[in-house]
Write a structure and sequence with these properties.
Elements: E1 8-12, H1 24-38, E2 53-57, H2 61-82, E3 86-88, E4 98-108, H3 118-128, E5 131-140, H4 153-163, E6 165-168, H5 183-195, H6 201-218, E7 222-225, E8 234-237, E9 244-247, H7 256-260
Parallel strand pairs: 1-5, 1-6, 2-3, 2-4, 4-5
Antiparallel strand pairs: 7-8, 8-9
């Protein structure tokens, strides 16, 4: 196995929401990321070495069942077996490793139960030590969203903030996950822009930005939001060279007739 770079990824899902005991947006992002890996050119041949993959859910087994079901639907049982995929809570991975581990934090802003007992520390320690080559945290909350300073989630968030490569992922159940846009998602965005020609400028700007993001994502670029740095802008990264750029749509308030001309 070749070393994977980056080896630590911090994937923030700003529209992720914990509803009940699951976070469907985090599940969607994880499924999309794994599907992209499984379908990558280096994994398409029968003789290629398949990285083993694990998904560890840090809060409850309901999230595990959701991801397992969606993942089987997305990649099929053969790829699931070829990559030796396992999905579960931390105890299920005790004494077991995978080449690539995804962590689903599940919690979101306003719905983050405190995890500060010894058993929680043990579960986090197991989860953080199961990856051989790459560890990916998929989260819907920021450090400031954790109300209890003794919560075991804080050391995890701090670790990824310090050492992780930050990527924002917007889960979009209609057009596919934001960072890997699809032709369906792009077409939806085109229709939204057309409907917005006579509407609010800021609303139209957001929909044009979404169209650009879907188009670049479907062309293979890594696209993410830059909310914390530049509100409304997107970051674009070439998967192969690592080159990055920022894109922002500037709306000067032109009337709809000018767009139609």
């Amino acid at each position: 196995h070749e070393r994977l770079s980056p080896s630590i990824i911090d994937a923030y899902v700003p529209n992720g929401r914990k509803v009940g005991k699951t976070n469907e947006e985090e599940a969607l992002v994880i499924v999309q990321m794994i599907r992209d890996m499984v379908r990558s050119p280096e994994n398409r041949t029968e003789t290629s070495t398949k990285n083993s993959i694990g998904v560890i859910c840090l809060l409850g087994d309901e999230q595990s069942r959701l991801i397992r079901r969606e993942l089987l639907d997305a990649i099929g049982p053969k790829a699931y077996k070829d990559h030796n995929i396992a999905v579960g809570e931390p105890p299920a991975f005790q004494g077991s490793e995978r080449d690539i581990i995804f962590l689903s934090m599940v919690c979101s802003r306003g719905n983050a139960p405190t995890q500060n007992r010894l058993m929680h520390d043990q579960r986090f320690n197991v989860a953080m030590s199961r990856a051989r080559f790459r560890l990916v945290l998929v989260r819907s909350l920021r450090r400031s969203d954790v109300p209890n300073g003794e919560d075991g989630k804080i050391p995890v968030l701090d670790f990824f903030a310090k050492f992780g490569s930050r990527v924002d992922r917007i889960a979009d159940s209609k057009g596919g996950e934001f960072q890997a846009g699809t032709s369906v998602g792009a077409q939806t965005a085109v229709e939204e822009v057309s409907r917005s020609a006579h509407g609010d400028v800021s609303d139209m700007r957001a929909k044009i930005t979404r169209l650009i993001a879907h188009t670049l994502g479907s062309s293979g670029f890594v696209v993410g939001h830059m909310t914390d740095v530049w509100d409304g802008a997107i970051s674009v990264e070439d998967r192969h060279s690592g080159s990055r750029a920022a894109i922002a749509v500037e709306a000067g308030g032109e009337i709809g007739e000018e767009w139609e001309a």
